[in-house]
Every structure is written in C-alpha cells, then in structure tokens.
Amino acid sequence: MSTSATEATRMAVKGAPDFAQARADFPALQQQVNGHPLTYLDNAATAQKPACVIDAVANYYRRDNANVHRGVHELSERATEQYESVRDKLTAFIGAGSRREIIFTRGATEAINLVAQSFLRPRIGARDEILITGLEHHSNIVPWQLVCEQTGATLKVARIDDRGDVDLEEFDSLLTSRTRLAAFSHVSNALGTVNPVRDMIDAAHAAGVPVLLDGAQALPHMPVDVASLDCEFYALSSHKMFGPTGIGALYGKQALLADMPPYQGGGDMISMVSFEETRYNELPFKFEAGTPNIAGTIGLGKSIDYLSALGMANIQQYEHGLVTRALRELEKIPGLRLIGQPRQRAGVISFVLDGIHAHDVGTIVNAEGVAIRTGHHCAMPVMRHFGLAATARASFAFYNTDEDIERLCAALAKAREVFA
Amino acid sequence: MDLKDLYRDVIVDHNRSPRNFGAPEHADRRADGFNPLCGDELTVYLDLDGDQITDAHFQGQGCAISIASASLMTEQLKGLSADDTRALFEKVHNMLTRDEAVNDAASLGKLVALQGVREFPSRVKCASLCWHTAVAALDRQQEPVSTE
Question: Among candidates A116, A114, A229, which has minimal Cα distance to A183?
Fold first, then answer.
C-alpha cells in the first residue's frame, strides 16, 4: 500500500501530531450538511474513515481481490498476506501475546456471542451465575441472557450509582464461587464512564472468575494492553476505530481458546473433513468459518497503522482536553443537565435539555449541521436508572475541534429558542 | 430544511400545553401506543355514544411532535364516527407521507400544522403513533401498537 503517508502520519513523525491537520484526512468531514459545515459528534455510534482506509478497501478490490488461505496464484497470495498481516498488526496494537489469540469476527457483538456460546455455555450449570454491570450495551447483556435461557443459569447485575460509576462494593460482593464469568465494558457507550478495569479484573481473578471486557468504546480513545490488563477475553469493533463496518475481533488467552469448541462450522475452520469425522483447524482459524471479510480486515489494518502513527497516548491526551472543554461549555447552557458524571470519562457526553425531548434536540441541531445521537443508545437499563426514555449524546474523536464544541453549543441554543 | 416548518407555533404550543391530557376516570375504550426505540408512550382514551366519539383524552410522554399530534388529534375526534376517524387518519397519513400538496386542507383543520413533518421522514412515526393508537382503541385491540 502506498497510501499510508497521510498528513497526520507525517506530522506524527516530526513530533506531536496536529489533530486539526488529521481532520483533513477524513473525506466525509469535508462536507456541508443543511448549509453548514458538518459537525460530526456521533463517533460512539460509528467513526468516520480516513482516506487511507477507504483507499485500502478499494485497492484490495481493484488489484488483489482473491480468496485467502487456499489459492496458489498471485492474487490469492497477495490477499492472504495482507489479511494475515492485519492479525499481526492487531496483536501488537492491543498487546496480545500471540497472533493465535486474535480471532476475526463480524464485530464486537459477534466476539461476545462467540465467548457466550463456545466458552461459557459448556462450562455453566443451572445453579451458576454470570456477572455484568448496569452500564452495559445490549450487546453485553443479551448474549448472556441467551446462555441463561439455554442453561438455567442466573444473570447478576452490579448496579451503577448516580454518577454513572459501577458500585464496586456491590460488584465485589456479587463475585462468588458460583460466578462463571464477569463481563463488563471498558468504556460505557451511553455515559462515557471509564471503568476501573484494573481493579475489577483483580477482584474477579481473586474470586477465580474469568473476565470478558467489551472494548468497543475504549480502543478509539486510549492505549489498550491486554497483557497488562490480564483479562481473559477482549472484544473490539473496527468501525468504532475508524475502520470499515462488518469486522471486529476477539482477543482470548490462548489456553482458553485452545480448549473451546468451534463457534460456527464451515470452510477454513477445518483441517480435514470426511463424513465420519472432521478435524478442526488450529488457532485462530478454528473460529473463522467461511470466507472472511477480507476487504474489511485490510481496511482495519490501515486504521491501525493510522492510529499508531498518531499515537494512542497522544489521542487520549488531546481528547481529554477536548471533552473537558466541551463539558465546561455545555454546563453554561441554561436548562442543560448532564446525565452521568463519572469519575473518569472518555469520548462521550450524555445530556438532556429541560422541557425539550431528546429527539427534538437531535432534529434541531441536525438542521445546523450537527450530528449527535438521541435515544437510549442501546443501553435501555442505563436510561431506566436515570428515569429517562432518551438522552442526547455528543461523542468525540481526535478529529473534533473546539469549533465543533462551539457549533454544538450554538445549535443547542437554537433548540432552546425554538421551544422558548 | 426549515425548522419553522416542523416546529410551527401550533406544535410548540400543543407540546407545552397539551389539550385533553391525562387519564379520565372513565373511558369506554382505551389503547396503548409504544415506540420502544424512541421511548414514546401514549395511551388514548375514547368515550362513545353508539358509533360516535363523544370525548377523547390521552396521556403519555414523547417528543414535541408526538405530544402535539396527540393533543391536536383529541380535539378533532370529538363528534366523529369510527369510519370518519379512519377516513381522517388516512388524510393525515397522506399529509405526513406524500409529496403532493394537501388539497383538502379545510377538512384537516388545525391538523395541517403537522404538514412540515413530511420533510422529516424519520419523524413520521412520531406524528402517526397517536392515530394508530386511536384506531386500535376503536378496534378494541389489547396489544400495544407501534409505528417503528
């Protein structure tokens, strides 16, 4: 690929990256919406893609399109090499010990379902428990409810407090000899809460409980090192981290993955098939049935290159300043109430405006070119905790600027005007 | 896209002060409407004399479009038969979804205030929830209706 030398990459080589320059790498951010420059603040739903990711996907289809792992011809070798190189990139990006610990999936949701069905279901009985928290996205609730329906096990939920932080005392007290897995988000998509995952993992391990972290909202905002976290599983999503949709991955400790039965059957996940017997392929291929999302994976690889060039620690630092300034400005708006005041926050601000329903807020700011999410954010239990049906959510990425904050606040003032 | 087309003064007023709002002590018919993705929830209450609606109330929560639409609807339903109600619903639905100009504005009365919704396709479900719920009440439907 020759498209990696983006402006941001060049800046990063020189020193601290210039995030205003990085914004220029994203074609979708250069447009006008309803006569205004687009202010894209729906990054927790999906992030925009830099040109290098879009080009990587297009170039694969233009030049290298072939199936992976089977052809001996030139194109198949190119496709296989590019596809498998992304496994190495992701291994390094999240600090996994081996490429065999990286399973490509359709997204974080499929990664969680894989653990639910292949890891947990065979090991859990009717008297056992699964522990989650009150912060979870539906994708980290429903797969466990399915296991409970299938096995008679019980789902336990550690509640959140009014700040939007997990009640750690309750979390600890719900870790028992019956708990077969603790599953929780690294960062909440609805409130932006960064969970104290280090402490939570330690508490779970002290009780002998393995841990799955839902990292969909963490990887776009901060460095993640699964080796030092020591979690058993980590689920991630490409499209939240500036890569294509339809691709994600599961990190799992090799010893656990080796013991797990396949999640789906099909091509690529076998080493030998007869009608009497099938032998499964080695890790990680055992869990990748069928022709994978080759183009999406190659695009994900390019987004990892892009993020690595900017530096996740730089991104974290820049966004911390940005979100702090956004909070300060939003708090000045009369009638605006922040929903969730977590001790540590990443990327997401949820709020309501007194007397104006979130959906009306969303429609009005859209007319000003501002894209935010309104609704329950696929986290209905979180909304119920705060007694709300919906909130407005502004969610940030490194390409957002102080101008975006100004435009959001001006659009919210407009909403207050309409309903004045 | 002009916001003033959507949030006309009538809409803002009926959202702020919804008419016929609250659960009456008695109602001949009632039905629930629920859009789980939005969180909009409405209950419509109807009193009937034979086939004729003599009173209409609603309560619930939702965006300005769904509340104002329900408020305007309850004002229009009084005196209508079940068939009249269905016919009016069809007119309202056409106004909300079709591009042709409304050629029957007079018979829609104040409901024309909802005309601007047509420019905001994602909000049609908000404006139509109350109407589906009212028809469900006439049909004695037990299950909550949804427009999502």
Answer: A116
